[in-house]
Write a structure and sequence with these properties.
Elements: H1 2-31, H2 39-58, E1 74-75, E2 98-102, E3 108-112, H3 145-151, E4 164-168, E5 203-207, H4 217-223, E6 228-233, H5 235-249, E7 258-259, E8 277-282, E9 287-293, E10 299-302, E11 312-315, H6 321-326, E12 332-335, H7 343-349, E13 351-355, E14 358-359, H8 368-386, E15 394-398, E16 422-423, H9 431-437, E17 443-445, H10 448-452, E18 458-462, E19 467-476, H11 481-491
Parallel strand pairs: 6-9, 6-12, 11-13, 12-15, 15-17
Antiparallel strand pairs: 1-3, 2-3, 4-5, 4-16, 7-8, 8-9, 10-11, 13-14, 18-19
The structure holds 2-acetamido-2-deoxy-beta-D-glucopyranose (NAG) (6 copies).
Length: 493
C-alpha cells in the first residue's frame, strides 16, 4: 500500500516536470532555430531531460539519485538453463502504465515505466580509488615505433592497456559536444549546460607498454565492415554506446545512418520513458552499433501476471532473452553491470532474487556484493560456453565505472589530474570482473583505475538551465571519459 502511494505521488511530480519540460523544449527549439534536430532524438532528449528535472523537483537531500528512473524495461526473458518458455498466459494491460505487449516471437516483454527509485549512497564506493603512485617506467613516445619496439614486443607480451597515464592532447575530443545531436542525449552534453570549464575534454590515455593506435573513424568502420557491435548493460553502458555513435559519425549529422531498432525489437512501449535500447546501421560499411538496457544482466519476470503491483523475479541464473536471441548476430559484445546491485534499487523496483525458479529467502546471496559477484561469474561462464559456438564473436566485460562522491556528496573539482595522472598497478581495481574473466575467453575491458583519476569529468551539478543541488558524480560528460573506453575497445578488436 505504501509503495503504491509513493509512485502515485511520483507520477504527479513527473507530470508537472514534463509540462515544465515541454515548455522548456519549445523555448530551446526556438532558440536553436536553424539546427535540424531529428524528431527521434528530440523526444529522446526530452525524456532523458525530464527525468533529471523531475529529480530536481523532488529536491531530496540524497546525493546519489542519478539513476532515478532506472528501469525503462523489465523484459520477460528466456530460461538460462532450460530452453523451454515459462508458461505465461495472457497478461492484462495494466494500470499505472505498466504496459504489456507481445513481441513477434511470442515472448512477453514488459515495460515497467513507473518504477522510480532512489539510489542508496554506496558507501563502499564512496571514496576515490587510491591515487596511483608515480612510476619511473618510461613511456613509448607517440609515433616513435623504434622506441616502442624496445619496450614492447607484441609476440611475447599482450599489452595491458589499463596501465598508463593521461596526457594533454590538442587532438581531443573526437567530436564536438555542441554537435552529435542525434546521438548525444542533452543531459550528458555538458557543453549544452551551464558548465564553463572544458579542460577535461583535452586528454588522451597513453598506455605504458604500447601505443594506442590512433582512432580514425573511417578506418574503424572499415574494420567493422558487415559487423555488429552490441553494448548490453546499465546507464554507463548506454553512455559508452552514445559515445561510440558520436565517435563513429565524428559528431556529424549523418542522415544516411539508419535506425534499425525494430530489427531487434527495440521499441518504446506505450507509457515507457525510453525504448529498451537503440540500434543504428552505417550503410557504407554495413556496420551496426546497438545498445540494450539490462542493468543487472539478469532475466526479469513479473511474478503475478494479473497483479499490476506485482513484484519482479530477478533470475540470477537466467540471461536476458535479448542476449540469447541475438547473440549469433553480434561480432563484438560489451557487457557491464555494477551500480544497480544495491538494496534501494531492489526495493524501489520490486525486484525479488530468484535462483532455480524460486525466491531466495536467506543465505550468502542476500548480500549485495556476493550476489553481484555471483551474477558476473555466472554470466561470464555462460558467455564463455557460447564462444565456441560463435567463432565470429569477441566478448568483453567492462569493469566498474568509478563514482566520485566526496564526503559531502559533491564532485566539484574542475582541475584535471589532481589525484595523479598514472596507473601503474598490475591488476584491475575491479576484482569481481577480473576474477570472473580469468581463464576464460571473455576479455576484460578494464577502465576502472584510469577513470578513477578523472573526478573532474563527471556531469556534476550542471544543468541546461542553472545548476542543481544534486551532484551527478557517476555519469560522465560527453565527449569525455567513455570515449577513451571506446578507444581501448577499438584497439583490442
Ligand atoms: C497510463 O496510460 C493510460 C493509457 O495509455 C492513460 O489513460 C493513463 O492516464 C496513464 N496513467 C498515468 C498515471 O500516467
Ligand atoms: C607525480 O607527478 C606529478 C607531476 O609529474 C607531481 O606533481 C606529483 O607530486 C607526483 N606525485 C608523487 C606521489 O610523486
Ligand atoms: C550486412 O552484414 C550482415 C552480417 O552482419 C550480412 O548478413 C548482410 O548480408 C550484409 N548486408 C549487405 C547488404 O551486405
Ligand atoms: C495475483 O494477483 C491477483 C490480483 O491482485 C490476485 O487476485 C491473485 O490472488 C494473485 N495470485 C497469486 C498467486 O498470488
Ligand atoms: C565470486 O564468485 C566466485 C564463483 O562463484 C567465487 O569463486 C569467488 O570466491 C567469489 N568472490 C568473492 C569475493 O566472493
Ligand atoms: C563544492 O560545492 C559545494 C556546494 O556548492 C561547496 O560547499 C564546496 O565548497 C565546493 N567545493 C569546492 C572544492 O569548490
Amino acid at each position: 500500500m505504501k509503495a503504491r502511494n509513493n509512485h502515485i505521488l511520483g507520477w504527479k511530480q513527473i507530470y508537472i516536470a514534463l509540462i515544465v519540460l515541454i515548455l522548456m523544449a519549445m523555448l530551446l527549439r526556438h532558440s536553436r532555430k536553424g539546427s535540424s534536430v531529428s524528431t527521434m532524438s528530440s523526444s529522446q532528449d526530452l525524456f532523458a531531460e525530464s527525468s533529471l528535472s523531475a529529480e530536481d523537483q523532488l529536491a531530496e537531500s540524497s546525493p546519489s539519485r542519478e539513476d532515478q528512473f532506472i528501469e525503462p524495461s523489465s523484459s520477460a526473458e528466456d530460461h538460462f538453463t532450460d530452453p523451454s518458455q515459462s508458461a505465461q498466459d495472457a497478461l492484462p494491460v495494466a494500470p499505472n502504465n505498466v504496459s504489456v505487449s507481445m513481441n513477434p516471437e511470442g515472448t512477453f516483454e514488459e515495460t515497467n515505466s513507473h518504477a522510480t527509485m532512489t539510489e542508496e549512497t554506496e558507501n563502499k564506493e564512496l571514496n576515490f580509488d587510491p591515487p596511483p603512485m608515480n612510476s619511473t617506467m618510461s613511456y613509448p613516445s607517440r609515433n616513435d615505433k623504434s622506441d616502442m619496439e624496445n619496450t614492447y614486443s607484441p609476440k611475447t607480451q599482450v599489452c595491458n592497456y589499463a596501465q598508463g597515464r593521461w596526457v594533454a592532447d590538442s587532438q581531443r575530443p573526437f567530436y564536438s559536444g555542441l554537435g552529435c545531436k542525434r546521438w548525444l542525449p542533452s543531459p550528458w552534453a555538458c557543453r549544452l549546460t551551464q558548465r564553463a570549464d572544458f579542460s577535461y575534454e583535452g586528454y588522451r590515455w597513453q598506455p605504458i607498454n604500447c601505443d594506442l593506435p590512433d582512432y580514425e573513424r573511417f578506418a574503424f568502420l572499415r574494420k567493422m565492415q558487415d559487423k555488429t557491435i552490441a553494448f548490453i548493460g546499465d546507464s554507463l553502458g548506454r553512455q559508452q554506446f552514445h559515445s561510440l555513435m558520436c565517435m563513429a559519425t565524428g559528431g556529424e549529422e549523418s542522415p544516411e545512418v539508419k535506425d534499425v531498432a525494430t530489427e531487434y525489437g527495440l521499441v518504446k512501449r506505450s507509457g515507457a520513458m525510453r525504448p529498451d535500447g537503440w540500434a543504428y546501421r552505417f550503410p557504407t560499411t554495413n556496420t551496426t552499433i546497438l545498445f540494450y538496457w539490462s542493468s543487472t544482466l539478469c532475466r526479469l519476470e513479473r511474478i503475478n501476471n494479473t497483479d499490476p503491483d506485482s513484484s519482479f523475479a530477478l533470475h540470477l541464473d537466467r540471461v536476458p532473452t535479448f542476449l540469447r536471441k541475438f547473440l549469433h548476430r553480434f561480432n563484438v559484445l560489451v557487457l557491464n553491470t555494477a551500480h544497480h546491485w544495491i538494496k534501494a534499487k531492489f526495493i524501489a523496483n520490486r525486484w525479488v532474487m530468484y535462483l532455480n525458479g524460486k525466491p531466495i529467502k536467506n543465505g550468502m546471496l542476500m548480500d549485495m556484493m556476493n550476489v553481484k559477484n555471483f551474477t558476473v561469474h555466472r554470466m561470464v561462464k555462460w558467455l564463455d560456453s557460447q564462444l565456441p559456438l560463435h567463432p565470429g564473436l569477441k566478448a568483453f566485460f567492462r569493469t566498474r565505472s568509478p563514482r566520485h562522491l566526496d564526503n559531502k556528496g559533491n564532485c566539484n573539482n574542475t582541475t584535471p589530474l589532481t589525484g595523479g595522472s598514472e596507473v601503474i598497478q598490475e591488476g584491475s581495481s575491479d576484482k569481481i570482473v577480473e576474477t570472473a574473466v580469468k581463464g576464460t575467453k571473455v576479455n576484460i575491458l578494464d577502465i576502472t583505475a584510469l577513470s578513477a583519476l578523472r573526478d573532474e569529468a563527471h556531469k556534476s551539478q550542471y544543468r541546461i538551465f542553472g545548476t542543481s543541488a544534486y551532484y551527478d558524480c557517476l555519469h560522465w560528460c560527453l565527449p569525455g571519459i567513455p570515449d577513451t573506453w571506446n578507444e581501448l575497445l577499438v584497439a583490442q578488436l
